[in-house]
């Protein structure tokens, strides 16, 4: 077992368009702003973990194109080791994000592109990288069978596994038993257990359901209400960490997962790792963007020392 964090996931270029409303079919309207930046849950988590001080390998697939160049540049700047297959016949993933310029409401179309073709063969190619990590992380933006095989490899090698069941979609029930930590947000947890998490008691009940399915611990992120850490021994509510005005909550979950993984890889106990993840997310939401908003280890430690 190694010391670093390995992450299987997707990269997409987030292209965000600001406008007063969505156009109807056949209509063209003027927008009020545009940005393009690195996105994709796994990719954001890799940047967050690296900036939070971990040695990170990111396993994915991209196209040989401009957005693929953006991915490579992102990892170079963040100090992430890119374990990428570059495809000639598929584009790099991209997201169309419409943002209402007065309310901030959004509508999103994601195409995973090359990363949508991640399969069991790709995971087998990355077997060494996964097996030699301290912590392995994956989500559901790439095909579920790839996540399943990777978690299986990690668990067999004695690597700590973190599964972020996002976006909320179907996956094989065997995955639960491969999770040291399942980390859903309140919406994803509700989709998994079949009832809303309106109160902390609901969250604890959801934690019990997830434990009954075979996970070792449920770490449920509750937005501004913080995080519930729930295993067979304890159920602890960790409040959110505030450090300034919240201006952009996109990527807050990815910041948490990346920070949590980085802390676990350093040998931090799970409860303190949750606090570290909360501090990571607490800083990220005070900045615009996803990957560019991820804080440095020194910033997280300064906030936690307060």
In words, what does this structure look like?
This protein is of the alpha/beta class. The chain has a single domain, classed as Ribokinase (UDP-N-acetylmuramoyl-L-alanine:D-glutamate ligase). The protein has ten helices and 13 strands. It is globular, with a radius of gyration of 18 Å. The protein starts with a strand and ends with a helix. The mean pLDDT is 95.
Summarize this structure briefly.
The chain has 306 residues and is of the alpha/beta class. It contains 10 helices and 13 strands. The two termini are 34 Å apart.
Relevant terms:
306 residues, 10 helices, alpha/beta, globular, four-stranded mixed β-sheet, UDP-N-acetylmuramoyl-L-alanine:D-glutamate ligase, single chain, nine-stranded mixed β-sheet, 13 strands
Instruction: Identify the overall geometry.
Output: globular
| Straight-line N-to-C gap | 34 Å
- The unreliable regions are none
Mean of pLDDT:
95
CATH architecture: 3-Layer(aba) Sandwich
* Lateral strand order in the biggest sheet: 5-4-1-8-9-10-11-12-13
Could you give me the name of the CATH homologous superfamily? Ribokinase
Helix content: 25-40%
Strand segment count: 13
- Strand content is 15-25%
Q: SSE order, as H and E? A: EEEHEHEEEHHEHEEHHEEEHHH
Q: CATH first level: which class?
A: Alpha Beta
CATH topology: UDP-N-acetylmuramoyl-L-alanine:D-glutamate ligase
Structural class: alpha/beta
Main sheet?
Answer: 9 strands, mixed
- Number of domains as seen in the coordinates: 1
> Count of helices?
10
> Whole-number radius of gyration?
18 Å
